[in-house]
Amino acid sequence: MHLFKSLSLATAAVCGLTVANAAEISSPNGEIIVNFSLESGVPTYHVDYKGKPIILPSTLGLELVGTTNLMDGFELIGENSSTQDETWEPVWGENSQIRNHYNEYLAHLKQPATERLMDIRFRVYDDGVGFRYEFPMQDKLVYFVVKEEHSQFAMPGDMTAWWIAGDYDTQEYAYTESRLSEIRGLMEKSIIDNLSQTTFSPTGVQTSLQLKTDDGIYLNLHEAALVDYSCMHLNLDDKNMVFESWLTPDAMGNKGHLQCPAKSPWRTMIISDDARDMLSSNLILNLNEPCAYEDTSWIKPVKYVGVWWEMIAGPSQWSYTWDYPSVKLDTIDYAQCKPHSRHGANNENVKKYIDFAAEHGFDQVLVEGWNIGWEDWSGNWKDYVFDFVTPYPDFDIDMLNKYANDRGVKIMMHHETSGSARNYERHMAVAYDLMDKYGYNAVKSGYVGNILPRGEHHYGQWMNNHYLYAVTEAAKHHIMVNGHEAVRPTGLCRTYPNLIGNESACGTEYESFGGNKPSHTTVLPFTRLQGGPMDYTPGIFVMDLNEFNPENHSHVNSTLARQLALYVTMYSPLQMAADTPEHYGRYMDAFQFIKDVPVDWSESHYLEAEPGRYITVARKDKNSDSWFVGNTSSEHGHKSNLTLSFLDPDRKYIATIYADAKDAHYKDNPQAYTITTKEVTSKSSLSLNAAPGGGYAISIVPKP
Amino acid sequence: MHLFKSLSLATAAVCGLTVANAAEISSPNGEIIVNFSLESGVPTYHVDYKGKPIILPSTLGLELVGTTNLMDGFELIGENSSTQDETWEPVWGENSQIRNHYNEYLAHLKQPATERLMDIRFRVYDDGVGFRYEFPMQDKLVYFVVKEEHSQFAMPGDMTAWWIAGDYDTQEYAYTESRLSEIRGLMEKSIIDNLSQTTFSPTGVQTSLQLKTDDGIYLNLHEAALVDYSCMHLNLDDKNMVFESWLTPDAMGNKGHLQCPAKSPWRTMIISDDARDMLSSNLILNLNEPCAYEDTSWIKPVKYVGVWWEMIAGPSQWSYTWDYPSVKLDTIDYAQCKPHSRHGANNENVKKYIDFAAEHGFDQVLVEGWNIGWEDWSGNWKDYVFDFVTPYPDFDIDMLNKYANDRGVKIMMHHETSGSARNYERHMAVAYDLMDKYGYNAVKSGYVGNILPRGEHHYGQWMNNHYLYAVTEAAKHHIMVNGHEAVRPTGLCRTYPNLIGNESACGTEYESFGGNKPSHTTVLPFTRLQGGPMDYTPGIFVMDLNEFNPENHSHVNSTLARQLALYVTMYSPLQMAADTPEHYGRYMDAFQFIKDVPVDWSESHYLEAEPGRYITVARKDKNSDSWFVGNTSSEHGHKSNLTLSFLDPDRKYIATIYADAKDAHYKDNPQAYTITTKEVTSKSSLSLNAAPGGGYAISIVPKP
After folding, report:
1. Closest chain B residue to A141 measured between Cα atoms?
2. Distance (Å, rounded) from C-alpha A428 to C-alpha A469?
3. Does residue A188 sit in helix, strand or coil?
C-alpha cells in the first residue's frame, strides 16, 4: 500500500515554488489525502477528501516566550512512515472491538538557526486525520514556555458550524447553528451567565466543533489525548475563514510549560460526506494510548438514581442550616446548628432512593449534599470549602451504606470541589480511603466556580494535570470517576477507563435553568461526545417543573418518549435515571425502558443522523442478544423509516416501541406517549414519528 | 493597675478636634503608652516611650477589592480592656519559662455606611506593642479580598535602620545600615541576584526591621502569628518618614482572601533604650497562640552534621549523572546512566559522616542529594521535580539508616521542593511515611526558585498556608521541620514547636557565594531571629574555600573562634556543625566547643549588644548547670569586660575560653585562636577581645 510520496523534487520542479520538501499521506482507502510541506521553512499542510479540498493550505508552529519561535526557518532532516492495522477491545464502549487502521508520516524538522528539533506526526485514517507536535530530547531545547500554538485549519468556504463560545472556564453554553461568517454577530447572544466564565474572542469557539460544507462534507475539529498541555480552542479569522488554535492560559498568561521530550495533544479532523460517520468514528479513541491499567476488572458501567434532581429542580437543598452567613469547617459544630429542614441528603430520603434502586435493579444511588460545607460552597473562591469525609448530622454514612449494600446497591460518592483544587488534592487520599472503607467504587466530582490556585482556569495545563491526577489516584483505590466541570474529554477514557464520565456541556440540569434547546441532544453526539461519554442525566418524566417546585418556572424541552431514547442516543457507560421515585411512579410503564436499557454495548449502528435535526442509533447489548434503538429530534420532529437489517437474520424478536403519541409536543403535551409491541426480524421495516422535541425508544428482545 | 483611659470627651473638649473617641493604653510598667483614636472616622494611633514619641500619629485600615474600603467612616461602638499576666514553658527555647504580661485594649468599630464591623486589638507589654485587625462574623462582611493593608508606622525622625530590600520571593540579602533617608539611594546596590526575586519599591524593606533613634531608642518592627494572610513588608514614605504595610500579592495581584471571622497577624513594635532588650524580648512568641499539640515529647533539639558543605562550597554534587539535558522522573532509569562520580550522597561518604557523628555525639546526619531528580532541579520552574522517596542507585537508604541507627545516630531527611508546592503536597504523605519507616524524625525542606503554582510568591497567603500545612502534616508523623526559603518566621514555633528552624536570611552558605559581611551575625539576632530560630549552619573551620575546591574563590568572613561563638549568639534548637570531618580533624581542640555546646537553654542573659557591632550572650544549659558565653563582632572587632554575675554565687566553675589570638583577623588570619582555662565564680570579671570579624566562645562548667 502506498503510504506517502516524497514530493520534494517533483513539487519544486512543477510549481517553481521554494518548496524544500513535501510529502503526501493517504488514508488506507485513499479517500483522504494529507499534503505536508515546508513553505519557505514554514510547516504547512492541506487535506483533500475524495479529490476536493476540505482543509486548505494551513501553517503549523508554536510561538514561545522569551526565545525564538518554532514557527519558521525549518528544514526537513528526515522522514518516517508506517502503517498500523490492529483491533483492540475497550473496557466499555459503543462497540466491543475497535479497529485502529492508519497510515503514519513523521517529519523530522530542524531549525538550523537555533539547532532545535521539532517533529510533526500525521496519522491518516479512513475517517479522518490527526497530527501532533513532538519535541525530542535535545540540548538546544530543554524547557520552554508556549506563548501560543499556531495550528491553522483553513476552511474551504463559509461552512455551517454548530458551535459554542470559546471560554477558559465553562463549556456550558447552548449550541448555535450558523455560517462561520455569522459567528461574530451571534457571539454575544450565545453567552449566558456562569459562575465561572472567561471568554476571549468574538470569533473564538470550542472544540469539538462540528462543521458542514454546502456540498455536504462533514468535518469535525477536536483534539485527542490532552495530557500535560492546555486545552485548545479555535479562533476564527472570519475574513479568510481560517481557524487557528488558541490555548488556555495559566495565571501568568502563559499557555504551556514543556520539558523535552514532549508532545502536544493530537489535533483531529473527522471527515466524511455521511453525517453518521461523524458519530461512529473512533478516531479520537484510536489516537489515545492503550489502557494504562493491567487489571480493569473493577471498572463496571453504572446505572444509577440519586438525590440530585430534587435539589436542581425541586425544593430540596444541599445545605443543612441557614444559621450563619458563612461556615468554617474547622470551627463549626453542625450538631449545634438549627437545621432548615430542607436538606435532601437525610437518612429517610436516602433510604427511599435506595429502596427504589434496589426494587428496580439500579446499581447505585448518588447522594449530593451529604458532607458538611454546603452553606457557602459556591461563588466565594473559598479555599477550605469541603473536607470530603464528614457527613452532616442527618446523614448516617455507616447505616446508609450498610442499608444499601444489604440491598445489593452502592451509594455513589460525591466530591464537589468548588474549584478549590489544592484543597481537594489535600483531602483526596482520606476521601478515597473513606470510599474504600464503605465500599463506594464511583465518585461524581465537580468543579463549580473559579479555580484555586487563583488565576488558573478550568482548562489550563495546571488543572488538566489535576483532573488526570484525580483519575489515576482514584484508580489506585479501584474507584471510577465522573468529573463535572472538568475539561472536555479527548478520548483519555481509552487509556484511563475508570474515567467513566464527564459533564463538560449543558446537561439535563439546564432544563431546570431555563431549558435546553429541543435540538440540543441532536448536536451533543456530534460535538461534546466525540471525546468521551457524558453524564447527561436523562430520564425526566415531569416536564413542568412548577409541579415539582413552586419557585421553578422552567420547563423540560423534551417529550417523555425522547427522555427514554436518550439512554441510547447519548452513549455513556454511566447513565442516571435523574427524576424522583415519585415521578417515575406516575409512568411505570414507560419507566420499564429505563430499567431494561443496558449501559454497555457490543455493536452500535447509526441509522440516521444530521446535526441539529435528528439522530437514530441501534445498539446491541454487550451481555445479551437484545437490541435497543433510540431517536432524538429537534423542534421540527422527525419521520423515520427504519430497516432492522442489523438484527440476526436467523432470529425473531419482540420489539417494544416507546413513541410519542400523535399529538405529543415537547412544549404542551410532552407526556403523551404510546407503548406498542410487535414481532420483528432483520427484514422488518418500522415507520416511526418523533414529535417536535420528541423521539422514540425501542427494545428488541430475541424470542426465546 | 490603670489599663486605659477613655478620652472621648476629654480630648474632644481640650483639642477642639473632631475626635469621636480615644483611648490610652499603658504597658504594665507605664513606660510605653499607646493612644488610639478615631480621627474623623479614621483609626489612628501613636506610641510614646518614657514620655517621648516613638511612633507618631499613624492611621490604620484596609483597602478592599471591589467594595468600600475599611479605611474610614468608622464609629467606636464598644471597648474592652483586660490584663494578662501568665508564665508559660516553651518546648525548647532561650529560656525555660516565659512571662506573658500585657494590658489589652479592644476597639469595636462600625462603619455605619456599610453596616460592617471591624475590631482593632492592642496588647501593650513592657517591651513593646502589638496590634491586629479582627473581623467578626457578620452579615455585611462575609468574604472579602484585600487590595492592600494600610497600617502606618510613622517614625519620629530620620532613624538609623538595619534593612534588606523588600522582596516577595527572597530574604537572602545582606543588611544595609543607613539612615531612612538613605534607603532609596542604597536600594539598588543592596539587591543581589537570586534564583527567585521580586522587589517592588525603591523604599520597600522587609521585617523584622531594626531601627534606632539618634537619642538611643531602639525600635523593631515585625509581625507575629502570620497565619492565613500574606506576609507584610514595609514601604517608606521618605518625605514624611512614614512606613506603611505592603503585603505580598497573589497571582492575581490581590493581597489577601479573607472569610469572617478573620484576623490579621499582629503588627509588632519592640521598644527599648537598651539594645539588649531587643534580643531578650519575647513579644513575638507571646503574641502567638499556645502550643497546638497535646503531646510534644517527640520534639527534640538537634545537633547535626551533614553531607552539604561539600556541595555548597566543595567539589561534590547533588546530582548523579550528566548524561541528559534534563530528566523526567517517570521515565528515567538511573541504573542505566553513567554516574559523574561526584555525587556526595553516596554510601561510603555518608557512612563517613555517620561515623563522625557517632564518634562526636551528634544526633543526626543531614544528607542532601540522596533522592533522584537533582540533574535539573533548579531554575526550570519544573512541576514534577522530585518524588521525595526514590534514592539514587548509590544511596542505599535501608543500609544507611540501619548503619546510622546502630550507632545511635539518625539520618536527617531532606525535601528540596524547588518551589513546586503542589508536587510536594502530592508526595508529602508518602514522603513522611518513608521517614516513619526508616526512623527519620526531622526534615530540612527547601523552596529554591520560582513558586508553582506559577504566579504565586514565596511569601503570599497561598504559600504561607502551604508552609504551615507542611508543618502540621509533619506533626501527625512526629516529624520536625526546618524550612529553607520559606516565609520568615513570626513566632509560630510557639504554637507549632516542631517547626524547629528556618533559613529566611543569608546563612553560612553565602560565605561560599562571595562571603557575608563580617557584621552579618551582629544584625541577624536583631532582625531575622526575632520570629524564630535560624538554621544558620555555623562551624566553618577552613575559611579559604579555595583550599577546599579549586573553583571556589570565596572566603568565609569570620575567625574560627567566632564560628564557635555563633552556636551561642545565634539561638537555635537546631545547630549544624557545617564543615567536613576532615576540616574538623585539623582543629580538634576547637571542635571540642561544638561538641560541648548544648542546643536548649534554661536561661539567657544578653550581656552586650549593639546592632551591626557586637552581641555577647550567656546561656545556661537546660540539662545541666553549665553556662556558655558567645560573642560575635563586626569588622571593627570588640573589647568586652564581662562580669559573670549570672553564675550561681555558691559554686565554682572552670571556664574554657576559645578566643581570637592577638593577631587574628577574619581576612588573613582567621584560624588564629587560643584556648585557655581558668577557675571562675559569679564575682569573676573577664577581659576579652574579639578580632575584626571575630568573637569568642566560653564554656563554664561547675567544678565537681
Report:
1. B325
2. 10
3. helix
Higher-scoring residue by pLDDT: A7, A305: A305
Asked whether the beta carbons of residue A465 and residue B138 sit closer than 8 angstroms, the reply is no
Mean of the per-residue pLDDT values of chain A? 96
The mean predicted confidence, pLDDT, of chain B is 96
Task: Check: pTM over 0.90? Answer yes or no.
Answer: yes
Residues B489 and B485: their CA atoms lie apart, in Å, by: 11
For residue range B573-619, list pLDDT tens digits in order. Answer: 999 999 999 999 999 999 999 999 999 999 999 999 999 999 999 99
The grid coordinates of residue B443 equal 526534615
Handedness of CA B151, B152, B153, B158 (dihedral sign): positive
pLDDT band at B20 (very low <50, low <70, confident <90, very high): very low
Confidence of residue B22 (pLDDT cuts 50, 70, 90): confident
Q: Which of A486, A597, A487 is nearest to A539 (CA)?
A: A597
Quick check: A256 and A267 in contact, CB under 8 A? no
Residues in chain A: 704
For cell 497567603, the residue is B461
Identify whether the C-beta of residue A480 lies closer than 8 Å to the C-beta of residue A443. Answer: yes
Decide if A469 touches B, using CB distance below 8 A: yes
pLDDT at B21: 67
Amino acid at A377: W
Per-residue pLDDT tens digits for B222-241? 999 999 999 999 999 999 99
CA distances from B440 to B117, B476, B478 (A): 48, 14, 10
All three cell numbers of B130, joined, read 502589638
Mean pLDDT over A601-617 rounds to: 98
* Burial group, residue B323, by CB count within 10 angstroms (0-12, 13-18, 19+): middle
Cα angle value B615/B620/B624 (rounded, 5°) = 155
CB contact under 8 A, A250 and B454: yes
Q: Tell me, what DSSP letter sits at residue A107?
A: E
* Predicted local confidence at residue A668, as pLDDT: 96
The CA-based angle A374-A376-A378, given to 5 degrees, is 90
pLDDT tens sequence across B73-101: 999 999 999 999 999 999 999 999 999 99
Is residue B423 a contact partner of residue B446, using CB atoms and an 8 Å limit?
Answer: no
Work out the minimum CA distance from B251 to partner chain A, whole angstroms: 6
Task: Determine contact: B330 vs chain A, CB below 8 A.
Answer: no
E strand or H helix at B246:
strand B242-247
Give the angle B319-B322-B323 at the CA atoms, nearest 5°.
130
A455 touches chain B (CB under 8 A): yes
Q: Residue A119 is inside which H or E element, if any?
A: strand A116-125
Q: Hey, is the C-beta of B257 within 8 angstroms of any chain A C-beta?
A: yes
- Say what the alpha-carbon torsion angle B267, B272, B274, B277 is, to the nearest 10 degrees: -50
What mean pLDDT is predicted for residues A162-181? 98
CB pairs under 8 A between A and B: 90
Q: CB–CB of A264/A231 below 8 Å?
A: no
On the 0-12 / 13-18 / 19+ scale of CB atoms within 10 A, A339 is middle
Give me B693's grid cell. 570579624
Grid cell at residue A35: 499534503
A240 in reach of chain B (CB within 8 A)? no
pLDDT at B672 > cutoff 60: yes
**Active site (catalytic) residues of B:** 509
- Which is nearest to A211 in space by CA: A248, A232, A183, A230? A183
Residues of A catalogued as catalytic: 509
Q: Which amino acid is at A317?
A: Q
Residues B181, B517: Cα–Cα separation, whole Å: 22
Q: pLDDT at position A19, please?
A: 40
Q: What would the pLDDT profile of A316-328 be if each residue is shown by its tens digit?
A: 999 999 999 999 9
CB–CB of A110/A135 below 8 Å?
Answer: no
Q: B89 with B602: CB under 8 angstroms?
A: no
Contact call for residues A350 and A365 (beta carbons, < 8 A): yes
